[in-house]
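User: Structure please.
Assistant: Input sequence and predicted structure:
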Amino acid sequence: MSSLQTASSRTPGDTGIIGKTLFYILLVIGALVSIFPFYWMFVIATNDRGAVFHIPPMLSIGGEFLNNFQRVLERTDFFRALLNSLFVSSMVTVSVVFFCTLAGYAFAKYDFPLKNALFYFVIATLFVPTQLSVLPTYIIMAKLHWIDTYKALIVPAMVNAFGIFWMRQYISTAVHSELIESGRIDGGGHFRIFWSIAIPVITPAMATLGILNFMNVWNDFFWPLVVLKNSEHFTIQIALQQLFSNRDGLDYGMVMSATFTATLPLLIVFLLFSRWVIAGLTSGAIKS
């Protein structure tokens, strides 16, 4: 009888507080699980090369980071590679966001012959394995004498099917046709309407596409390995690969210090654009 009275005495507010508390506890646990690999990488980067084999796993931060990173600088032109990756990733991201937004806007708000067939063809290219395009793309780059240049990394990646699909879907729901018609009535041209009306509305989707593309280009290893020959043009992923060729055994402290430093630009970019990225990814999830 007493248990029934206790259960009946609980208010909906108490149940809500308990549920919210459990929810935040799960979020904290998930955050800790997600952060732990990055933290452990930093721990190994700040200890000697044998710390990775320590049992139980070492969790305390050491003081060997500068020494480990000094060996990175002796074996690779790390900061040059970092700047190369930053330049290539930034150029590709800007071009992808611009051209994919234009294409997505055209597919979403304009009617033209074979519109649907062309869009389905663009989507179909997503099912083609990337490895199949390596040889023809390499031949084209060779014909243009772009091998071992930044153009071989930037130009083939200036637009992609996923970006067109992403922007087309977002613009279809976010940019209302009434706004476009109002702009036309006011005498605005096609590009003026796109720039003044559509762009402010779809900024979250553009930021999301930008950060996803930046991360993809930054982490790309295979294509730069194929087309780059001169170490002055190496991106950060190629520079990191050079650290694994060590006759004396793999120096995990050195590798982790370089990897940790190479990851920092990604974290900075994400933190700068996180507000727009979250808004873009959650758009449409909550209806008013």
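The chain is about 70% helix and 0% strand.
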